[in-house]
Amino acid sequence: MSDSYLVISRKYRPKSLDELIGQSLLVSSLRSCLDTKKVPHAFLFHGIRGVGKTTVARILARCLSCVGQDGLTDLTSHPCGVCRSCVSIDRDQHMDIMEFDAASRTGVDDIREIIDSTQYSPVLGRYKIFIIDEVHMLSKSAFNALLKTLEEPPPHVKFIFATTEMHKIPETVLSRCMIFPLRPISFDALSSYLIDVALREGFTLEDGAARVICEESGGSMRDALSLLEQSMMLTSDDKAIASKMVLEMLGSVPSPAIEALWDLILSAKPKESLAKIEEFMKGGADPIMLYKSLQNSLYKLITQRIKGEKGNTSITNLLYIWQILLQQAENLRNAHFPEYVLSATVIILAMTASFQNIEEMMINKKDQKPQPRADESNEVVDNILSKFPGAIAAEVE
Ligand SMILES: [Zn+2]
User: Fold this and answer.
1) What is the pLDDT of residues 281-297, one digit of tens each?
2) Spatial separation of the C-alpha atoms in residues 92 and 103, rounded to whole Å
3) C-alpha 62 – ligand 1 centre gap (Å)
4) Secondary structure (3-state) at 72
5) What is the pLDDT of residue 393?
6) Cα–Cα distance between 354 and 392 in angstroms, integer?
7) Mean pLDDT score of the chain, rounded to an integer?
8) CATH value of 187-250 in 1.10.10.10, 3.40.50.720, 1.10.8.60, 1.20.1440.20
9) Would you tell me which of 162, 251, 268, 297 could form a disulfide with 354, CB atoms 3.0–4.6 Å apart?
10) How far is the CA of 17 from the centre of ligand 1 (A)?
11) What is the CATH number assigned to the segment(s) 8-181?
């Protein structure tokens, strides 16, 4: 690997609004702002990690700073890429564009430094632009100090904020920003893009493999590209990325195997369900990945059931099982041995599935007891439910 090696997420980082994937609403809003020259003095981009907030902030800084080949062009939604400003931005050397990471510079002194520099005119471009990443991490006093400048900013100053946690930003600051949400990228758009990037790198990415990467990334471009890059490193001479390879890399198992496990759980077979989960883990599956796959698969089952497509389990029971799965997520993440939590969860789910109708039980809690299958012990079920948060109402006096 040479010194000039660039990770794929940096190599393919978009430099213009046209190159942004899966953010069409954001792109048209920004274009409208720029083309009508109605540019606010503070922008806020929010969304999950790796979805492109900092990338958009830099593209916007480029749009605001480009002066065109003739050096006279006004701000634009189509920066030229060759003017002094555009070239300086490409080299990360633009003197008027300053990037701060609020995660490491949270204090009021850091913000005062920014505020002091706003009084000087830009050197190269038309604006001094302050990009503040993870802005929600600023301290209360830092926000207060920033607020005064946000209320009456000098005309040559623009702020671009990015955050994953908008709810932590004071209302007084939010009300002075134009807010742009970045959505998780749709699986279809992300999948096509990954297949295209793989091709450009000389690899073939199977549709199924792309799908697995998309699901694991949850719509985050950076995570998806990083997983694609890891997959590329595992390929042999044929440079083909198959879904089996990606699943093994992630410590997951194929969807049909997960569906087969749900068949066992919903048929109220705790012993067989436990054997299946142990078999997965002996094969190298990761408990956290298995949990995610179980959750994704159950979501599909519920939607299929609501559409009346397939399945015998009542929607109420499926939703109750969904709730149990969600409640166990926290336990799983904090556990020293997540494989035990997962195994116990699967047993609880299979035992819960043995109840005839949870809704009826909850309504007639005084008269009706849970109806476990004949081959299960009441005592074991009662014991598990008594330890479980939100245990069946029938057991509560
Ligand atoms: Zn330019």
Assistant:
1) 998 899 998 999 999 89
2) 20
3) 7
4) coil
5) 36
6) 13
7) 86
8) 1.10.8.60
9) 268
10) 14
11) 3.40.50.300
